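User: Continuing from earlier, I have the next pair ready.

Assistant: Great, send them over.

User: Here they are, in order.

Assistant: Folding the first of the pair now:
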Amino acid sequence: MRVLALLALLAACDEQDVHLDDTHGGDDTSAHGYMVDVVADDVTVAVDLSTLATTTFEGNPAVELPDVVAASGLGVTWSERTYDFEGSDGYRPSGNDCPPVDWTAAQLGYLFPDSGNLVWDEAAGLRGCYYVDAMVIVDVQDAAR
């Protein structure tokens, strides 16, 4: 009888879909979506992309970069800042001769909420080094920095 109970328990476990996604520091994302940290003035706020409105970009649902930084609730004047980004692998455009972007360009950035990939509207005129896979940090910097 105990063997049957054990087999039933194992069968039930096989049917469960337990999924831990490494979208943000290995957090269990079953309660939230892809997370991005917005950092400004030594303050970090995690933003859940699944809570933000999406638009269609390149045929896919995407979150506009300005919506991500605004959702942080950080009380900064966005137009007076520059923006650098970091992928989950540590890649940063600024580490590849691509200086942080200004607010005008930042307004043309999009994040795909399923992957966190940062892409740009062609109108931004940015080189390929600004495309960041699995972005985890938006580094909002003082423009004078």
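And the other member of the pair:
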Amino acid sequence: MQRQKATQHQVPMHLTWWVFRLPSRHWTKQSPMSALFIERKAPLRLSTQRCPRAGPSAATTESNPNSASKGARRTDALMVDWKPEVWISVYAACVSTSALLIQFRNWLTSGPRIRCTVIPDGVIIGGNPAHDERDLVIVNATNVGSADTTVTNLCLERRWPFYYFWRRRPLASYIIPNPQLKEYPPNVPHLLEHWTGAIRKRQDYIKNIRDGEYYVCLYVSTRVRPYRIKIKPSFAQADADS
């Protein structure tokens, strides 16, 4: 049977989307669409009208058939109906998150918290010259936490430099049994609110306490490890020794 001459054919609008959703493997001679387009040799012409299901124009659909449905789904997913219930849910989530953060901060700051400062070259000057002292390392400790603790001991350690991080044991340790100032009562043990102790420099034991290797260690009853504060080196004394 002689084939008819190819003529222009307009694809109905309700078939436009279905045609391009059909995979290429279905375009065979046995399919009804092949009989429509292959046997009649009719070129495919898309309708210029907007497809109500796809959303974009026919040219966009021709270049990428799946982009229309994906774009429509993405747009629908981004569209949120901001009803009063949604705003209330967002506000409740913010309030609960803030309360959780506040509780976490309170948990971190609960218990005793010790702030220590060290005066390397301390001098005591009072009303009585007999009580004055020089060449002291003065240690001040304050409890800023919510629980009480007790000062049990004050020590002095000589430690390895920081690049020997695997050596945790000190080179030398010195216990200060009487860290109180002259003519003051013993202050160890002592309930820590604000505590002041003194380490007297002994040249016969420690020649240079400010060489950057010595640390003051404050032990309290609520902690196993001490509060360790480094005694800052004195560059002027190091230059004088060299």
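Worth noting for the second one:
The first strand starts at residue 114 and ends at 124. Strands lie at 114-124, 133-143, 150-158, 172-175, 190-191, 194-200, 214-220, 227-230.
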